[in-house]
Design a protein that fits this description.
heterodimer, A: alpha/beta, Rossmann fold, 4 domains, about 20% strand, B: alpha/beta, six-stranded mixed beta sheet, elongated
Chain lengths: ~650, ~400
Amino acid sequence: MIRFEDRRLIGRVVATEAMPAGPHQFQFWTATDTTIGIGAIVRVDDERGRTVYAVVIDGKAYSDLATPLHDVVAAEGDPAGTAAPTRRTEVRLWTAAVLRQQPEEPVQPVSLAGVMLATREDVEIALRMDAYVRANRSSGLPIGLYTGGGMSAPVYLDSDFLLGPESAHLNISGVSGLATKTSAVEFFLTSIFQKFPAHKGTIAAVCVNVKGPDLCFLDQPGELTAADLEMYTQLEVEPRPFESVHYYAPFKADGVNLNTLRSHPDLIETVEPLVWGLREVLDYHEVLLSRDDIDAKSDAFIDFLADRVVEKEFSDEWGTTHRVRTFSDLERLFRSIFEGLEAQGRSDMWRTHHVATIRKVRNRLLNISTRCKGLVTDDGTVSDLPFGEFEDRAVYVLDVAGMDQLAQDLVFTRVVSQLREQLERRDLGVDHVVVFVDELNKYAPGDGPDTYVRKMLLDISERGRYLGLVLFGAQQFRSQVHRRVVGNAGTTIYGRMDLDELATPGYQVLSPATKIKLATLPKGELMVRHPHFTQPVFVAFPRPPVLAGPAGIQRFPPAKDVAFEEAVVAHLTALDGRIIPGKVKEIIVGHRSDDIRRALLATKRARPDDVVAFFRASLGSPVSRERVERASGSVAKLKSVEDPYAP
Amino acid sequence: MKLAHLADLHLGFRQYYRLTPNGVNQREADVAQAFGRAIDDLVQVEPDLILLAGDLFHSVRPTNAAILHAFNQLRRLRVELPGAEIIIVAGNHDTPRSVETGSILRLFEALGGIHVVATAITELVFDHLDLSVVCVPHAALMAGQSGISLPGLNRCKRILVTHGEIAGALSRESSNLEYGGALVEPGDLQVDSWDYVALGHYHVASKVATNAWYCGALEYVSTNPWGELLDEAREGRRGRKGWLLVQLEEELQVEFRPVPLARNLVDLEPIQGDGLGAADLDRVIAERVASVPDGIADNIVRQVVFDVPRPIARDMDQQQIREFKAKALHYNLDIRRPPTERTVGIGAPGRRQTLSELVSDYLSRRVLTAEVDRKELMSLAAEYMNEVEQDLLEE
């Protein structure tokens, strides 16, 4: 790091008629052995007391050769031939974009003065961070280290502009496979959780793990190098994993093994099942049912079910009263309608709905519990996120990586909708929630059909900052995400980019040299755009303090799926290691698997002191089930009826 | 949906010695008649579901008459209400101690539409009613199967039927009265999880929770009907027996449907007998009997008289008492003795009393009939004792 007294001139501003220095951009030359490069921040002080801070966005080198032919002639046409008799004069000419001028007014062209490397304090001023970092109550959130000319300085984001209410949302782009996007978000969340000031309120994060084991080990410490630790020291962030992480994963189709890669016996106890019933699903049927398939008639019938039938007393025309709470109840209602219509035999209509529409809706709705098996249950048992009781600085990970795309959409939509509704009512438990979604181009694509998920994401992007609902979205190609979603992201991060992607219109504001740097950006470096920064800034960030997915899988290999009984034992022993497996097996003998699952869920939710006693009580006694047909009216006649008590 | 909740019919229950002209125990016939009247009412009301929450019969091996009567009445119900589902759950009185005895209740399944749950917890699922009924018979409760697993498939309506004593629901006296039942912790039933909990075992209709009721018996079939009267008074239904009509709508409605009783239970106002002679008591008792508006004929009557010493009781008008007993179906003159007063000597014994003094002391306390003058009696006794003492001295 350069101290102020070490500061020295590294170049001079030049301006010609063809290349004048403007108020927003200027050129300067340096010695050929300079340490600066694209992204370096420089400072220009003129004798009138004006200081200009700028970032290098392009660079050129040339000599006094009139044409390339002169050099060919001098070398006698042989590149390996005799060296030129004299060394040619060579110049390094840099283009810098102005970050800030002091005083701010009047805005004037940059003076022809000496150029110096920016110091740590200069970086703060240049990026206008002084307004929120040096304030009495700092609201700066360290995002990485700016490095230039052998000096490094922390770069802070303004929490008001990252988490609301001034602006909000963060979007991160980068080619896949470098683990940059996920690592960056993990580090940012660490930084936010440690540095988000208490006077700004409470905050939690909901991460949707859509692929692999990326977010499966946020509570486990990762391996950090000395360089990483040095960066943490400079950023004043403690390199420790998240203290409060809650994992949620649906069951697999067997209904008892959790569908997660975090299934190692040492970790499985911290994974809560995510199980929903009809009510939770029906409100979001638009997610699950294709708009091309569900026409207005079907839509009307589904609305009828949601408004008039589900969880209400509902009598059909044939004397049966229904209270539909589960998919099984719904199936019974449909059966009742079809049987009633069949017995009636004269109409294809039921309450203005055609029987074909009813059949179609029945098929689509009941298919949901099949397609989302493990997440959606037939019997109405629900295990959900603790809406209303969210904890401050806690991460809630929804591991839906192993699920069908449809189920992923459902989970994402419902959870985010619930967060939005509860934040609106201010009864979620925290004031701000960061929702991290990878593969944003899948959920909010720039083209394609207008899905419910996309509509919801657009709504969050535009209104979320008022609510405290902050979207951290990541995708490989920013150009493929809906413009209003990325456009509303106050902070944008770029990792290494694909050149084809950089050729798209969204990157026209970047200089060719910046694009090249982006295309070759090493792991651990990013380019940041933030409302306070007038130009993008390159920063380096340390590895996150948590175990990365692949390393986590090696350290905690996922457990193999086990048989039903064994899985039940495993779940319970995870809650209390003293439990004797044989005892659990003895308890569940003779019980239906549905009942066992329900008791298991209840026990996991309650986490009682006496696990076995609670599980046994929840399970109750075995209940044999008999399905009873409608009583028939035929009773055999008796020859005589004797009244033994006749007077 | 309308649900009829009955319990504790105790068919075959016998009490007292009065017989019908056909030689049947009168109370047994009364109990049978009450069941018949309840069936009449059920037919009028037309419930969708009829629950018999235990103790259909008074004993594991009921009399042939009781079996035949139950069969006839249930058959009538099936004929009159062919669409109604009938569920019979075994209570402590119709659960055999040993498995090989078997249950007579199974017999009624032959009528069709009658579902008997006698031993294990069973969930009966009625798709056409969108109803799930979990039946917990006495045997299951006694086997320690107290925790009830909620039905897996949630129906529109969920009903629990069981026969036992809910801990804390009955007063101590009532709990002693209904002996032999299984004690169930309220938490085990998860009362809030059900639309309605139909309970049997306690013979007085009473609410345990908003959605959990004992319907009571149709007749006085316990060993102490007078205690039932007291409990009924507390519930505001003194002298009324019946069944519950439950409307399982958005808001649960429970209606007590009384069944006319064959005879009244008359608990006459107790008499304080302290200081009264036999004649006085005879007179007061006669007044009490006369005060019954419709007389005591064919009723079950009790007269409690407190603090009546044995000699007084012995001298009472036994003829009058026999007449009352002949008139009523059962006349119970319950004479209670005065509490015994025991004296305990403390400290060193003083001078021993002479025989004359002992006799005098005894006569000063002895209970006497009204005609005898105590002073005269004591004076006469002292005179006799003096004569005896003189005779002894002269010898």
